[in-house]
Amino acid sequence: MGNSKLDKVYTASGDAEMRQAYDNWAAEYDRDVVSQGYITPTRVAEALASFVSPGGQPVMDYGCGTGLSGIALKQAGFEQIDGVDLSEKMLDVARERDIYRNLHVVEPEESLSDGLGKYEAIAAAGVISKGAAPPSLYTEMLHAMQPKAKLAFSLNDLSLADPEYADIVKDSKDAGLVDVLFEEHGPHLAEYGHNSGSTVYVVERLG
Fold first, then answer.
1. Which of 64, 95, 118, 186 holds its CA 20 to 30 A away from the CA of 83?
2. DSSP letters spanning 170-181
3. Domain interval for residue 10
4. In Å, how far are 80, 118, 177, 185, 188 from 145, measured between CA atoms?
5. Is pLDDT of 33 > 80?
């Protein structure tokens, strides 16, 4: 069964429309995606924790939304979690969870270098995909990361069917930017018919 707000973000065009779609969805987001069997944040957090000793290691939850990914990171053992997102209203919900050290809105034109360069562990669950950020964000994130930093992220089935998204990991590996540490396809939104899976990756920035 589909979901009208979920369908809306998958068809949004441009940063302004995307921000508005997520702002409008913020109050019902958790209920809607949990009811659709949203498991990707847990898969991303557990994959990242397999390659980064969590403990006191600071982690950036990029595109943290309402904080479901922050909950997953905390459950995986991360204690110092920072988050950024495009939607202020989604962040309002995340703040209520009281699991983040710092939260702030990221602007589309904002440089990533200062924000990501200080982290050795970065998570981006459900962020680089149709219905969220364009594939170019992946390359921007890699160039902002420090050598040896790890990025755990996902590509949903709709994105994997689009060559602009599907080839980004292979292209970055072929270019010598990353080493692919982990790649596993599994459930994403288990109850959402045409977008039921995602591939979770962990890549290490080479330098």
1. 186
2. HHHHHTTSEEEE
3. 4-205
4. 18, 8, 11, 25, 26
5. no
